[in-house]
Design a protein that fits this description.
The chain has 767 residues and is an alpha/beta fold. It has 4 domains: 7-186, no CATH class; 225-316 and 327-447, P-loop containing nucleotide triphosphate hydrolases (Rossmann fold, 3-Layer(aba) Sandwich); 452-618, 3-Layer(aba) Sandwich (Rossmann fold), CATH 3.40.50.300; 667-764, no CATH class. The chain has a 7-stranded parallel sheet with strand order 7-8-6-9-10-5-11, sandwiched between helices. The chain has a 6-stranded parallel sheet with strand order 12-17-16-13-15-14, with helices on both faces. It has a 4-stranded mixed sheet with strand order 19-18-21-20, with no helix packed on it.
């Protein structure tokens, strides 16, 4: 039953209303707690206490009873934070806790003035009460007092990337606190609010014991690697343990493919967390094609730990555990999804897209987890995949996170980019710049010890046709060919015709199909059976395969080195493995040979160095340093993306969020009928037709979907792509929908070997 006074939220399931003063006090207290080591922690408290000040307005109280609508209840609290407390970050956070962070320039901030909003609101809303004095009087009568914070997050915008990250982190503290307290009210019962159970704490000591036991009883006895490989892995393990004792900061971890980086960097992270009392470990990987492999290893290590000790947050997480309706999920999956909202877990495995785009987002849901990056160890696997045009702002944000908020950053890869050459540009956006410490000081010796492959480079002007390559493969019982484009993979498969033991791997295949292909490849290789795999770049980063021979289309140097990492990986051959680099005989400009212009530029830098030196040693880190130096001289990362730079200077949070994209966003998902999962496909299609699609449907559909660029309006692919209706809006629009269902009555558009084949649509396929 409703009580007297002002309320933040309407009645929950037991009829209890949410008193406004208790909500503001609770959110302020939680936000202060989440701010932890931040110097602006009291500003976070202030933001929590003032974020819903406008709810003291009579119109908002009527809105809770369904008697009013179209109200702005946030701007009055934002204006109070700005004018009375000079708390710019709190003002932006309060303003954005429903609509997202807006612009932070002086003109935009002054638009929070109630007189201006009352005359013309940018969203067409009405203030719940334009009288600030009345709102303050009511809050005082409720026992609230607002204290100006001794330190604020934004005192200068000179280091803009750093200052904007400060705002996002305070915003994160506010929105997570607001979400949690609101959730606790609506989950409450007759005894009061019911707070969700927090995730388990990180116990580094117990986790290290589990990791050491896993290595001792599982990995080391089971490995078939040669003694020199095992010795190199032990050296990497020891180096990571020693580096873990270093002060909190930014690190690179440079080690050759197959040296055991996945578990060695976990060792570093756990030892480092134990040494400095850090709260969680976050691992970001670039591709969904490898995230499950890594997650499976981590789950095996911590199999005896509490549920969600290892939390996965990516589009494939939890698949197979859900039913058609979101509210019918098993309790364990619902708990996982709740913890994923704010990364309240000791070890989080996620994607670069999820982590880095959140660092530059303006949306409450995306920024909500950011405060849990503080006092953490953040690991980036395959760090070379960070796009050059985003390198400077990304490095600036990460270095500021480390220097100010007690987080350590680790960039791990076999082909370490020379990001320290961007130090000067980075330091203009965040004071520390980018000067990481190498976790494996003697890594050149590791590369020399683990040289397992000889590389044959093409002579100048030498090319090979697809028929030439097909003939070469006839003499190779177990070989891998990696090409740059899906169209090239199709051409080579066509040249091979009905040759036996041919497999194909690309993102033309849905994830569950790719997983089946990889399992079959591993089975054949383990048994010594014939196995010829034609693949795109999706096979390179982090995919654990071990072929005796690899053929690689000419590409950027790091891609060639990654391909070499799939050759003689365990060092079991009596001689070195063989990597042949070839130039496809493809006439025309770069578009006929490479997926993007940036990829073409990097390949040409590789070719230039090869011509200058006559050979390239992919086992020598010095080679890669020179390669990246020349690449950055050519591509000039610091001056790329001028629109993004302009948005940073104007503190335009929405525009920055729009422009910071690791992958092309104009893509669609197509549900496909793979033969071995036809029952699942039919169930998903029937559900989409009968009820429309929602979040649970999309998550279950991910394993049977293929991503492709949205076709032009007149493209023939639309003849077989059926837009999926959204459950809530029943909306169907092929130029707006993101999900489609492949109509394939004669089973000609999804092939067991080739995957998705759309009419004249090869150029649409991603990856």
């Amino acid at each position: 039953m409703e009580s007297d006074g002002f309320h933040a939220h309407s009645a929950n399931a037991v009829g209890a209303w949410h008193p406004l003063h208790r909500h503001l006090e609770s959110v302020g207290r939680l936000a202060r707690t989440f701010a932890g080591p931040a110097p602006w922690c009291e500003e976070a408290r202030l933001a929590g206490e003032q974020h819903d000040l406008g709810k003291y307005g009579d119109r908002f109280q009527r809105r809770l009873r369904g008697q009013d609508a179209g109200l702005d209840h946030w701007s009055m609290g934002a204006w109070l934070a700005l004018k009375e407390h000079q708390a710019i970050a709190a003002a932006l956070a309060i303003q954005g806790h429903h609509i997202g962070l807006q612009r932070g320039d002086p003109i935009s901030l002054m638009c929070l003035d109630p007189e201006k909003l009352a005359r013309r609101h940018p969203l067409g809303l009405a203030l719940s009460d334009p009288d600030l004095d009345r709102l303050l009087a009511r809050s005082r009568n409720d026992g609230l007092t607002f204290q100006s914070p001794p330190t604020t997050a934004v005192t200068s915008w000179n280091k803009a990337i750093a200052a904007m990250l400060d705002v996002r982190l305070l915003f994160s503290c506010l929105v997570d606190a607001d979400f949690l307290d609101t959730e606790a009210h609506f989950e409450g019962d007759a005894t009061g609010k019911r707070q969700r159970q927090p995730g388990p704490p990180l116990d580094p000591e117990a986790a290290l014991l589990a990791l050491d036991r896993f290595m001792r009883e599982g990995i080391r006895p089971a490995t078939q690697a040669q003694p020199i490989v095992r010795e190199a892995r032990e050296r990497l393990w020891q180096a990571c343990a020693e580096t873990a004792q270093a002060p909190i900061g930014c690190f690179t971890l440079t080690a050759p493919t197959g040296s055991g980086k996945t578990l060695a960097m976990l060792k570093l992270a756990l030892e480092h967390a134990q040494r400095h009392g850090l709260k969680r470990i976050i691992l970001a990987v670039p591709f969904l094609t490898i995230i499950e492999q890594t997650a499976q290893v981590y789950r095996s290590v911590f199999a005896d730990f509490p549920d969600h000790f290892v939390l996965e947050h990516h589009s494939l997480a939890g698949l197979g555990a859900e039913t058609a309706q979101d509210d019918a999920q098993p309790p364990q999956e619902r708990e996982r999804r709740l913890l994923a909202e704010n990364w309240d877990a000791p070890i989080v495995i996620t994607t670069n897209v999820q982590l880095l785009e959140s660092l530059f987002s303006n949306r409450p849901s995306a920024c909500r987890k950011l405060h849990n990056l503080m006092e953490s160890v953040i690991l980036f696997d395959e760090a070379q995949t960070l796009p050059a045009q985003l390198a400077v702002p990304t490095l600036a944000a990460l270095s500021h996170l480390s220097a100010t908020y007690r987080s350590s950053i680790v960039f791990a890869t076999a082909t370490q980019p020379a990001f320290d050459s961007l130090h000067e540009a980075v330091s203009q956006q965040a004071a520390p710049g980018w000067q990481p410490v190498e976790a494996v000081p003697d890594h050149p010796a590791l590369f020399a010890a683990l040289k397992r492959v000889t590389v044959t480079w093409p002579e100048p002007g030498e090319t090979r046709t697809w028929d030439d390559l097909a003939a070469d493969l006839g003499d190779i019982p177990r070989g891998l060919v990696v090409v740059n484009l899906k169209r090239h993979a199709m051409a080579l498969l066509e040249a091979l015709g009905d040759a036996p033991e041919i497999l194909h791997l690309s993102t033309n295949l849905c994830p569950v199909h790719r997983r089946a292909v990889l399992e079959e490849v591993r089975r054949r290789l383990a048994q010594g059976d014939p196995c010829r795999l034609i693949a795109t770049q999706c096979v390179e980063a982090g995919v654990d395969l071990d072929f005796p021979r690899v053929l690689r289309a000419f590409a950027p140097l790091e891609a060639i080195a990654q391909a070499a990492g799939r050759c003689n990986r365990e060092g079991r051959l009596s001689a070195l493995g063989s990597l042949l680099v070839f130039d496809p005989a493809e006439p025309g400009d770069w578009r006929r040979r490479y997926p993007t212009h940036a990829y073409f530029q990097a390949a040409e830098v590789t070719r230039r160095i090869l011509l200058d030196q006559g050979d390239l040693d992919i086992n020598d880190p010095v080679t890669f340093r020179e390669y990246y130096r020349q690449l950055y001289d050519l591509s000039r990362p610091a001056s790329q993306n001028p629109a993004f730079a302009e948005a940073v200077q104007t503190r335009d949070f929405p525009e920055i969020a729009r422009l910071y994209r690791l992958i092309d966003q104009d893509a669609i998902q197509v549900l496909v009928p793979w033969d071995k999962r036809l029952d699942d496909f039919e169930a998903l299609r029937a559900e989409a037709e009968a009820e429309g699609i929602g979040g649970a449907w999309m998550r279950r559909a991910q394993t049977l979907s293929v991503s492709l660029y949205r076709p032009p309006t007149d493209h023939p692919a639309w003849g077989v792509l059926i837009p999926a209706k959204l459950r809530r809006t029943r909306k169907v629009d092929r130029q707006q929908n993101e999900w489609f269902i492949l109509e394939d009555p004669h089973a000609v558009h999804y092939d067991e070997t080739l995957g998705l084949i759309l009419p004249q649509a090869q150029q649409l396929l991603i990856g």
